[in-house]
Specification:
Helix content: 25-40%
CATH class of the largest domain: Alpha Beta
Distance between the termini: 38 Å
Number of helices: 17
Number of domains: 3
CATH superfamily of the largest domain: NAD(P)-binding Rossmann-like Domain
Radius of gyration: 21 Å
Oligomer: single chain
Strand order of the largest sheet: 3-2-1-4-5-6
Strand content: 15-25%
Length: 437
């Protein structure tokens, strides 16, 4: 990408890239920690529901009092966007409804937007990206997060002339995690609630990582950004380490787990009995490619590629992702090259709210990572056919009907205010980008 040379030129000309950050949580704080050591990068404003905590986050990551004093802090992101005069807005709230509003405001004001908020992207990313294209601004996935890193591997593979067989990430998974709640989440992480609270860790957010929702959202983003298909019946989370990727992630017809070539999937760092997978990819991303001919397959062997038993399927992977520590790549790509680091292209996959337990009419859903529902990955056509309620809109809505455990929640099953901006925008996205059934 070679953005550093461009950044050095901006530094020499004293023309910094200016940024506005929305959300100073863990991801935002990790980005902020890199700002003092990055030449020609300036944070003009930080918008957060608690500006005082945002200031404290800056102190915690090593900002000087002078840098903090030169930055505007506010609890109103829309006001900051309208008057921000920045090159790039970073949306890092994790709230899908707020994320859509912030992204659209940035686009209306001619500002590039880096969407850390995968929840909003999975909910309505195709239409957000379309609005950005028509406005002539960049709408980008966040480098450092697993969707952008996976899309980068897919781009490498396709540009090199390989067919992509599978792509995705690793995580820690067991089937029983789908029923995890904020009350039980820390048991699975080996933490006490007190230790988690002292570290500022949000139990509902971390539970979304555990119960499968975040994995589904990220795979939806990858599918929508690459055209790779989701599994027909949800993610399988097959156990696989770095050395097993090409063997496991190949078609069922060749003793793999894939229903078809060209699929997204998440691999687990645990076997189903709970034992660890050797050389797991829990923190990483991967792509599996197929050799187009015998000569290429021979080259895989000659150059030490990680292949399956046949030598025709090979895996490339990155074992770690550093989330906010790598976010500068997206910011600089948008501001200096006018290019995204991954972008939603269509509506291929969706994430549907699914009951964690038997739910009764009158109960109020509490959304991603909560006590009532988890997010299951579906092909977009299948989600629309069943009328599935997106997980991003399954917060603070009341059930009209009983829903059995592990059954999808549908739009018709909840009292939904159809006049809400996020609901209207989602409906518009469905109409414009609905895939053939």
């Amino acid at each position: 990408m070679f953005v550093y040379q461009e950044l050095a030129a901006r530094a020499a000309a004293d023309e910094p890239v200016t940024v506005g950050l929305i959300g100073a949580g863990k991801f935002g704080s990790m980005f902020l920690s890199q700002v003092p050591s990055t030449p020609a990068l300036s944070v003009a404003f930080i918008a957060d529901l608690d500006p005082a905590l945002a200031r404290e986050a800056c102190r915690t990551v090593g900002w000087t009092d002078e840098r903090i004093a030169a930055t505007r802090f506010h609890d109103d992101a829309i006001t900051m966007i309208r008057g921000g005069n920045v090159d790039v807005v970073i949306e890092a709230t994790g709230n899908p409804v707020a994320g859509i509003a912030h992204a659209r405001e940035a686009i209306r004001n001619g500002l590039n937007i880096v969407m850390v908020n995968v929840e909003a992207d999975a909910l309505a990313g195709p239409l957000l990206a379309d609005e950005a294209r028509r406005a002539g601004v960049v709408y980008s996935m966040a480098y450092g997060d697993q969707p952008a890193l996976t899309c980068e591997l897919v781009e490498w593979a396709r540009a090199s002339g390989f067919d992509v067989v599978a792509a995705g990430k690793g995580t820690k998974y067991l089937p029983e995690y789908h029923t995890a709640t904020p009350d039980t989440v820390w048991n699975h992480y080996g933490l006490t609630p007190e230790h988690a609270a002292s570290a500022g860790m949000n139990s509902q957010m971390f539970n979304s990582f555990l119960d499968g929702t975040k994995s589904a959202l990220e795979m939806a983003a990858i599918a929508n950004g690459t055209g790779l298909k989701p599994p027909l019946n949800g993610l399988q989370f097959p156990p696989a380490g770095m050395d097993d990727l090409a063997q496991v992630l190949r078609p069922e017809s060749e003793s793999g787990v894939l229903a078809h070539k060209g699929q997204v999937e998440v691999v687990s760092s645990l076997r189903r009995d709970g034992s660890p997978v050797p050389r797991d990819l829990r923190w990483g991303v991967y792509v599996v490619v197929e050799a187009p001919n015998d000569y290429t397959a021979d080259c895989f062997r000659q150059y030490g590629m990680n292949t399956d038993a046949t030598g025709r399927y090979a895996a490339m992977y990155k074992p770690f992702h550093l989330i906010g520590l790598e976010l500068n790549i997206s910011i600089l790509s948008a501001a200096l090259l006018n290019k995204p680091t991954g972008m939603t292209l269509g509506f291929v996959a969706d994430v549907v709210a699914t009951a964690k337990r038997d739910l009764k009419a009158g109960e109020i859903l509490d959304g991603e990572g909560g006590y009532t529902v988890w997010g299951k990955l579906y092909p977009a056509a299948k989600s629309l056919q069943l009328g599935g309620l997106p997980i991003g809109l399954a917060h603070d809505v009341t059930l009209r009907t009983d829903i059995g455990m592990n059954q999808p929640v549908r739009w018709q099953d909840v009292d939904m205010d159809e006049t809400l901006d996020a609901v209207t925008f989602r409906r518009q996205m469905e109409q414009k980008f609905a895939p053939p059934s």
